[in-house]
Amino acid sequence: MSVLEVNGKSIQRDEEGYLVHPENWNEKVAEQLAEEEELKLIDLHWNIIKFMRDYYNEHRIIADARFVIKYLAEELGMGKKEARRRLFELFPYGYVKQACKIAGMKRPRAWSTG
Question: Where are the transmembrane segments (predicted)?
Fold first, then answer.
């Protein structure tokens, strides 16, 4: 396990850097995790992160990439193929590797990546 220090608070992470307790997530945590991933968060990143957090809070499970792609397609008025391409432009090392981590999710074990 590792620890992420944010505003004087220690936040536990697993061996891959995902939060052990998603309830410890906040925007400052996301910014620090994004910095580690060498990403500068723009509004569309935040829209995706908010969708993911809302989905998790409502369903108590992490949104599969296909739900995020559907959200992006509807939000941006584009086809699903274009939305999938855009998702992976925003998170170039992958939905699980970057989006889930930055959104404060535990690491998903197995599922569709879109």
Answer: none
Q: Is residue 114 very low, low, confident or very high in pLDDT (cuts 50, 70, 90)? A: very low
* Cβ neighbours, 10 Å, residue 21: 11
pLDDT digits (tens, 9 = 90+) for 35-70: 999 999 999 999 999 999 999 999 988 999 999 999
77 part of a folded domain? yes
First to last CA, the chain: 29
In a domain, 67, yes or no: yes
Residue 62 forms part of a structural domain: yes
